[in-house]
Amino acid sequence: xxxxxxxxxxGSGTTLQNLIDRIERGELDASIACVVSSRKSAFGLxxxxxHGIPAVAVHRKDYEDLDAFNRDIWExxxxxxxxxxxxAGFMSLLEIPKDFAGRVINIHPALIPSFCGKGMYGxxxxxxxxxxxxxxxxxxxxFADDEYxxxxxxxxxxxxxxxxxxxxxLAERVQAMERELYPKAIQLFAEGRVVLxxxxxxxx
Length: 204
Description:
Layout: E1 3-9, H1 14-24, E2 30-37, H2 43-50, E3 55-57, H3 66-79, E4 84-87, E5 104-108, H4 123-132, E6 136-143, E7 153-160, H5 167-190, E8 194-197, E9 200-203
Parallel strand pairs: 1-2, 1-4, 2-3, 4-5
Antiparallel strand pairs: 5-6, 6-7, 8-9
Helix pairs in contact: 4-5
């Protein structure tokens, strides 16, 4: 059964493109109902329009307060009747309304609860991983809540940290894992196989 997805982003939209490609190849039972960006200049909006997907900019700097910003984001999501919200490099804290609790997911380039929280994104994560000396990092797909990188974990997979790794080389392997794990989580959700039980998630 196909699920209608809203993708929220702030940047180039590489995660969005991965999802579009997999949907077009018949590997993911989903359709992208809309793309919402917190930045007017985000190239992800152009990617969406190139594929005939409704694209909306809700520019964070146009709003004096977070409540008004969030209200307009959710208005766009509801208007396009999205069933699942996928955060794809969305750089603003999102307040999740009750009707979307358990229907917003995020991906993080480390094994939560390590190397996560406010300010821990992109290369900041990989730099911290290498500096710490850990031998494993990875990817986490989790339900989003009103805190950064905090909600219940849906899927995780590990990526080794090599002795000669740089943030760039580590990012390349982590991003390859992200391209596999995020569609897998969305597919599980589309099939109704994700069960949220408190802080724990079971996949059936």
